[in-house]
Amino acid sequence: MTDTGKQPYGEDPIGGHRPPELTQGSLWKNIWHLSWPTFLIMVFNFLVGLADLYVAGCIGADIQAAIGFVTQLFFIVVIVANAIGIGTSAMVSRAVGASDIGRAAEIGRQSLIFGAAVAVGITAVTILCCGRIVALAGMPGPIQAVAEDFLRIFAFALGPNYFLIIVNAVFRAAGDVRKPLLTMFFVSLVNITGDFALAFGIPPFPAMGYRGIACSTASSFAVGMLISLALLASRRWRRVFAGPWRVNIPTIARIVDIGWPSAFLQVAWQAGTIVLYSILSRLGEGTVTALAALTNGLRIEAIIYLPAFALNMAASVLAGQNLGGGNPRRAEALGWKTAGAGMVLLSVLALPVFIWAERFASILARTPEVLAETANYLRIMMVSEPFLAVGTILSGAVSGAGDTRATMWIIVACMWGIRLPLAYLLAVALGYGPTGVWVAMVVSMIGYSILMSLRFHGGRWTHARVD
Fold first, then answer.
1. 278 pLDDT more than 90
2. pLDDT exceeds 90 at position 345
3. Which of 285, 340, 356, 426 has the most CB atoms lying inside 10 A of its own CB?
């Protein structure tokens, strides 16, 4: 069997598991098959972040502050890997849907070549300019040295992390979601156990203090890369290694063309969030309370977001594969069904938070004022959860089809055209305070849901070019 022809996908069971054909069979089974492993992966990531902050807090508040700063910096440099992963996923899912595994392997190979080049460049710049980056980030003097140590160690983890993100995108796009689940389970296990073992010196490991947190993260990515290499060597995916390792400019150009809107979107969203914090900082006496409430509320909401983003990724793969298989009607039906399931699920999760907002707020809030405002935030924001589900999931389907520009412009328009101006108008100009900001966030989320639904219903995304 050669690498060039169109071949059926289900030939390489791992542990007796054969990935299903996502272009046929039960729609609900397809949605479930992709969703639950992705949800678990996100839970693993959530637990890793929690462990990092907990161990850092045990060492000292300055360490916790430093790791928070550096995590944001690391997120910025990983945006490029995520963008490559989105472009790769859209192209691979189309190829797999068309039963062209040779093409899927070629796309994966070119993504790895491109990702490696980018990672090497960013790693070199980060190591050489570590001190300047920390200073430019505006980190307070007492934590600059700690932040430099974190960033320097994280820089060496950048290459393995890029590799991990891209390979997981290939597996996920092919419907092989148990491979990323297996990989991320071990990545999370190494990271969490390493946090405690390396930071506190649990035998046989020496006590490394805060450096142990960074080293555990770097080690976990290295372990994940090795596991991914082993999975790529399986019968199906060894084609990635078998082909010529030379740059294919047209393929890389398509990956970039599909992926760059995602990178721009993430930067625009982060910048918008900073502006939102700036608006809250203009509230005078209630500024600190409002800022703390937003921070607490976002962390509590993150738990509810997890199923929505899992379904977002499921919709992305299902749309891509079914379009690749020449079945746009099935792709559209899967998108609406996935969005409907997400809307119901997030509504069910939001209801108890709305009813018992004070109890949920008390998990993080430590003063009566912050607790009351956090509860106010949660009650208002829970109204937006069904809309969040619809917009997020349909954006996954549209992006998975390769129509990433539409998603970018809709989200940027809702953030910069609705949320921020309305937040300033209600909170500052009209004097409604933080409640005005929370209302503006809900209105922008409703707008996001409506615009994404209109885009999806229009059907232009089914004609997006990926090759």
1. no
2. yes
3. 426
What is the model's pLDDT at position 288?
Answer: 81
Q: Among 12-26, 257-271, 393-407, name the one with the lowest average pLDDT.
A: 12-26
Same domain? For 430 and 291 the reply is: yes
> What are the C-alpha distances in Å from 102 to residues 238, 254, 457?
10, 17, 33
How many domains in the chain? 2
Average the pLDDT over 361-368 and give the result: 81
Q: Is 466 within a domain?
A: no
Residue 127 sits in the same domain as residue 78: yes
C-beta separation of 201 from 222 below 8 A: no
Which three-class secondary structure state does DSSP give residue 99? coil
Exposure string over 311-342, b if 16+ CB within 10 A, otherwise e:
bbbbbbbbbbbbbbbebbebbbebbbbbbebb
* Whether residue 297 is found in the same domain as residue 335: yes
Whether pLDDT at 10 is above 50: no
Instruction: List 14's β-bridge partners, or say none.
Output: 17
Residues 321 and 386 in one domain: yes
In this predicted model, which residue has the larger pLDDT, 126 or 71? 126
Determine, yes or no, domain membership for 172: yes
Q: Which residue carries 């209105």 as its tokens?
A: 443
- Both 38 and 140 in one domain: the answer is yes
Coil, helix or strand at residue 76: helix
- Residue 68: band (very low, low, confident or very high) from pLDDT cuts 50, 70, 90: low
Give the residue among 113, 101, 90 at the shortest CA–CA distance from 10.
101
**138's torsion region: left (phi>0), alpha (psi -120 to 50) or beta?**
left
Contact 122, 134 (CB under 8 A): no
pLDDT computed for residue 138 by the predictor:
62
Report which of 94, 259, 239 is spatially closest to residue 166, judged by C-alpha positions.
259
Question: Is 88 inside any structural domain?
Answer: yes
Helix 249-280 / helix 101-128 crossing angle, nearest 10 deg: 50
Same domain membership, residue 271 and residue 233: no
Q: Around Cβ 32, how many Cβ atoms within 10 Å? A: 12
pLDDT tens sequence across 171-212:
998 888 889 999 999 999 999 999 999 989 888 888 888 888
Q: What is the pLDDT of residues 448-461, one digit of tens each?
A: 999 999 999 999 99
Kindly state whether residue 16 falls inside one of the protein's structural domains.
Answer: no
Q: Which of 227, 247, 267 is the last residue of a domain?
A: 247
* Helix (H) or strand (E) run with residue 453 in it: helix 434-458
Q: Are 166 and 85 in contact (CB under 8 A)?
A: yes
Residues 62 and 157 in one domain: yes
Phi-psi region of 156 (alpha: psi -120 to 50; beta: other; left: phi over 0): alpha
